[in-house]
Amino acid sequence: MNYQWYPGHMTKAKRMMEENIKLIDLIVEVVDARIPMSSRNPDIDDLGKNKARLLLLNKSDLADQKRTEEWSGFFQKKGFYVLKLNSKSGAGVKEVLPIVMEACHEKIERDRRRGIKNRPIRAMVVGIPNVGKSTFINAFAGKACTKTGNKPGVTKGKQWIRINKNIELLDTPGILWPKFEDQQVGARLAMVGSIKDEILNLEELSLQLLGCLSKDYPGLLKERYGIEESDPLSMLEQIAENRKCIQKGGQLDYSKAANILLEEFRNGKIGKITLERPLAQE
């Protein structure tokens, strides 16, 4: 399966970000903690040079905690401020504001020396679709979420949100890129649900996921589905049998079994799983 995702949107997304980057002090990048590298847009580092950076490892409740710590250290070594959180439950959200203030300490001190008082930190929130960017913004802003009016560079589809007197967020559309150079990136994004299932071969995707899980998390599939771990097709057959995925005529319903596997992986029922490790990125 060749993974292709939203081709043609890159130019528009980059132009929007370039127009607004001069207005902001900090880039807050939201990624999926289960695939911290694959859920990062590769263009953000170039566009955000010389800006303070905060990386939020969202959906950390679904990820392997040990690997989340490894990824946190990996990104910190690269100069990021890093925080793991679960935007849906609100876990970790209260820690965001102190880290934002720490990340922008130099900017605050520079303003103070120049006699500039009460100019809020402006942070651009970026992230690909389905990493939980909107959920994070709503959790961070809370009921005090208000638009701050027209500002230079703000066009339809973007919104300034005042968190408090110290910080304003610029909400942006999901930043996309048009082609995956590494098809494994596309596969991982598909596994966590960041690519529409309607355009995928879910049976083939489920076989790839089974291969990953049996290699990196031996025993989990047996514990969840009562199957013997072997080749991916045999495991999918066993899941179909054990979950009574039977078509008329008594044939196994591979499509239904694939849907069960993917849904239970995505909602954490199989276990806390991270699909990539920082060691491969060194």
Order of helices and strands: HEHEHEHHEHEEEHHHHH
Please summarize the sheet with the most strands.
Answer: 7 strands, mixed
How large a portion of the residues is in β-strands, by DSSP E? Answer: 5-15%
Structural class: alpha/beta
| Number of helical stretches of at least 4 residues | 11
Question: Into which percent range does the helicity of residues fall?
Answer: 25-40%
Mean pLDDT: 87
Strand order of the largest sheet: 3-2-1-4-7-6-5
Give the total of beta strands: 7
N- to C-terminal distance: 28 Å
Radius of gyration: 21 Å
Shape: elongated
- Indicate the low-confidence ranges by residue numbers: 146-156
Family: Belongs to the TRAFAC class YlqF/YawG GTPase family. MTG1 subfamily.
Domain CP-type G: 10-178
Pfam families: MMR_HSR1 (PF01926)
GO molecular function, one term: GTP binding
Structure, explained:
- The protein is of the alpha/beta class.
- Helices cover 39% and strands 13% of the residues.
- The protein is built from 11 helices and 7 strands.
- It has a 7-stranded mixed sheet, sandwiched between helices.
- Helix 8 packs across helix 10 and helix 10 crosses helix 11.
- The longest helix has 15 residues.
- The chain is elongated.
Keywords:
seven-stranded mixed β-sheet; alpha/beta; 7 strands; single chain; 282 residues; elongated
Briefly characterize the structure.
The chain is of the alpha/beta class. Helix content is about 40%, strand content about 15%.
Structural topology:
Blueprint: H1 10-21, E1 26-32, H2 44-47, E2 52-58, H3 65-77, E3 81-84, H4 96-103, H5 105-113, E4 121-126, H6 133-141, E5 146-147, E6 159-164, E7 167-171, H7 183-192, H8 202-216, H9 220-225, H10 232-242, H11 254-266
Parallel strand pairs: 1-2, 1-4, 2-3, 4-7
Antiparallel strand pairs: 5-6, 6-7
Helix pairs in contact: 8-10, 8-11, 10-11
Organism: Candidatus Blautia stercoripullorum
Keywords: Cytoplasm, GTP-binding, Nucleotide-binding
Subcellular location: Cytoplasm
